[in-house]
């Protein structure tokens, strides 16, 4: 028979290393992109600083989805959410991101994203790391004033990035 004091049990279990999985969805064209590398680097930095999550190792599960297929994206998101999940990151595509945000909201799962969002409404379970359009507009305006520029051209890769600033 083995007798173990409760205090010794707590000390033993508090020293055990547990693993938390953070899940992410990136579009296939974002594979090895700066966004994916930043995500992986964030996990690395959190694991390196033991004061942030003591006795815990953060691991990631990244899934890639076609940019134009919300059905497959939903299926992959649901598959990720069916496992133990503390939150979901991505995707940065505005249409897919809004879709995943809606799923996370319905399931009360935290959703982190970095995408343009033209709906300024409060989202209870979502944190968008991308600056709001009015903040970007002010930054461009301040930069133009600081540099004494009277005209500037901004080229966007996608047309949903257009804004109205004079």
From TrEMBL:
One Pfam entry name: ANF_receptor
Record SUPFAM superfamilies: Periplasmic binding protein-like I (SSF53822)
InterPro entries in the cross-refs: ANF_lig-bd_rcpt, Peripla_BP_I
Main localization category: membrane
Record protein name field: Receptor ligand binding region domain-containing protein
UniProt domain Receptor ligand binding region: residue ranges: 36-161
Highest taxon of the lineage: Eukaryota
Subcellular location: Membrane
GO cellular component terms given for this protein: membrane
Keywords: Membrane, Transmembrane, Transmembrane helix
Keyword Membrane included in the entry's annotation: yes
Organism field: Microctonus aethiopoides
